[in-house]
Design goal:
alpha/beta
Length: about 400
């Protein structure tokens, strides 16, 4: 044990002595080698630092370039969007101007006037007779009766007669003055309902549902609208939702073939709500502009058929809560005052957003459209005056009012 401690003491003393010893002097060669190693180390560290600075600068430069590119891309996208909006506004203005010119085409409404004249002969004769007598209470009562017989209804007839009598009572008026004054009164009722519908506006695909009773002209109206849209470059899909009547499907296919627009259809008796759902999904997948849906004609007093129409609306809203974006009720002018009850029923069930009045070139009296405009705050988009695609025209309150009373445009 003593020997062991002795050795430890000697070791400790040796270590202490070694610590106090001076570092040995290096030779010139060793000093040169040491300096060279230090320079090499410094050079390496400098190169690493330079490489790090270059990398950082490159990262900053690339980030700036990416940011500049993103800014340029954003600016380009905003400029393109602005240009598209300007072009859309220009095309829309041109379309509205063209629609207005088309709606007020004298030749067009000459035909409308001829059609109305055939069915409102009593009104024309009565107005001519009034132009040869003093405008007293009896004459005004006769005028009101004439307006009622033209399908305007008692409420509208009373309003028009009252407005017409102001400033004219108890004096003689000419036939042309009577017609001009009546046209002005009727136009005042119709003008707030005049609206050209722009199917290019709003969401895509824009889902348009056409509803109405049997024989109102829904399928023909859709075909005519499709033809116009195809001419304007719209990408549309026609849907033969009238799965109860095979003839309606074939008729829509004919219109689709003429316009070069595809038609989605299924066999007779198929579920129309499911078909419409499939059509909207297809339009979304193919990035189409419009889905025009023909529905089965149904009487407004048939609860089960009206319920089915409500089902179509509910099913479509599973894809788009805002759809259908338009529900257009197609009315047959020849049914007279019955059209009022149709508007009420379909408006309640399907949420009608606009109207089309067809068959004004036939035996229609036409006055019912004035009664509808008075009773319902619904826009009137189109009127039909024939079988050809160009016979479906934008509605003009002024031209219609003049044609109704036999006044030349």
């Amino acid at each position: 044990m003593i020997l062991w401690f002795g050795k430890k003491k000697q070791l400790d003393e040796a270590k202490a002595a070694g610590e106090t010893m001076k570092a040995p002097e290096l030779s010139a060669e060793e000093l040169a080698a040491q300096e060279a190693a230090a320079r090499e180390k410094a050079e390496i560290e400098a190169k690493v630092a330079e490489a790090n600075r270059a990398w950082e600068e490159r990262q900053k430069r690339e980030a700036q370039e990416a940011e500049d590119e993103a800014v340029r891309a954003k600016a380009a996208a905003e400029l393109k969007l602005l240009e598209e909006r300007r072009e859309h506004a220009r095309l829309r203005a041109e379309a509205e101007a063209a629609a207005e010119a088309e709606a007020n085409d004298p030749g067009l409404f000459g035909r409308l006037g001829e059609g109305l004249a055939r069915s409102t002969a009593r009104l024309s004769e009565g107005l001519a007779a009034l132009g040869r007598r003093k405008l007293d209470a009896a004459a005004l009562e006769e005028l009101e009766d004439l307006l009622i017989t033209s399908d305007m209804g008692s409420k509208v007839a009373a309003r028009v007669t009252k407005g017409f009598a102001k400033g004219r009572f108890d004096r003689e008026v000419s036939g042309d003055e009577i017609r001009a004054a009546l046209a002005s009164e009727i136009e005042a009722i119709l003008k707030p309902r005049e609206k050209v519908v722009d199917f290019s506006d709003g969401p895509r695909p824009r889902v348009v549902l056409f509803v109405g009773v049997n024989g109102s002209g829904k399928t023909t109206t859709i075909g005519k609208i499709a033809s116009r849209l195809q001419e304007q470059g719209a990408k549309a899909l026609l849907v033969a939702g009238d799965t109860f009547r095979a003839a309606a499907v074939e008729q829509l296919k004919v219109w689709g073939a003429r316009a070069g627009i595809p038609v989605l259809a299924k066999g007779t008796g198929a579920d129309s709500a499911g078909l419409v759902y499939e059509a909207v999904e297809k339009a979304k997948a193919e990035d189409l502009d419009l889905v025009l849906v023909d529905t089965a004609g149904r009487l407004q007093n048939k609860a089960e058929l009206m319920s089915e129409l409500g089902k179509i609306v509910r099913v479509v809203r599973k894809i788009d809560p805002q759809a259908p974006h338009d529900v257009i009720l197609v009315l047959d002018a020849t049914v007279g005052q019955n059209a009022l009850s149709q508007v009420e029923a379909f408006r309640h069930t399907a949420g009608v957003t606009g109207l089309v009045m067809t068959k004004l070139d036939g035996t229609a009296k036409g006055g019912v459209l004035v009664a509808i405009a008075e009773a319902h705050d619904l826009p009137i988009h189109f009127i039909g005056i024939g079988e050809k695609a160009e016979d479906l025209r934008p509605f003009s309150a002024e031209a219609f009012a003049k044609a109704l009373v036999g006044l030349k445009a």
